[in-house]
Amino acid sequence: MTDTFTRESKFSLEKLREDEVQIELSISARDSLRSSIDFAHVGVTAATDIDLRPRLKALPCGRRCRQIFGACTNREALAMIGLYSAHSFLAMFLDEMWPLWCLATPAVDGLGSSISEIGTMVSVAGICLLIYQLLVYPRLCCSTSKIFALACALLCPIVILTPIIPQGSIENGQPASMSVLVGVGFMRSLEKVAEMSAFTSVFILINNSADTRERGAVNGLSMMLASISKALGPLAGAEFFAYSVRHGSEPPFSAALPFVLCGLAWLLLGAFSLWFFISF
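Above: the chain's sequence. Below: its structure in token form.
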């Protein structure tokens, strides 16, 4: 009787221990499940805080609209964008017209040069421009407004004199001599130096005309308007030069007329920029 009671007591004790172990396992499983749920919740919350909220905030276009509106109401920025667009139009106008004038025969007041001669003059101008941009312009960029006005003013005589200088040396419809080509190449180098000085200066002026919040909108607006100007410049230059060759008479109302008008336009652009910089 005593042995039977002892065996039953041991069996009950072992069962009780097994139940305690199962309860402990259940509690640990519940705690691990709760911790995983909490971790997942924290991860979702962190992901939402890091990635989703800025994107949701970026969906309304109010801030961007305010930036664009601020750029359109900034008088200084609009003036710089206008200078950049006008300068881009004149530069593309001249770049389209200059090789056509070089290829035109002396009978229509052209230079009468070959393609290889044009390539040589352009290469020399590019080398001169590279040296200027690397060595000279960094020493002058502290006064960008004066550089832009001065470059536009210098472009006026350079552009006007380019087609007029060879006229006295070209006789009887013969192509230009080497001295004439050297002179035209020198004028072309001066023109590119002045042209790129104005471009670099107006880039700096555009960025300085707006604060950091509006700078992206200002640069985007300037690129859009300048691209339109650069698209219209070659079309206008080619058509105007063709018209002057067909209907022109004596210089400067022959093939030199587009150069004269382009130079005068640059002079007006420089005068306007100087007036604006002094007034504002």
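Residues 2-58 form the longest helix (57 residues).
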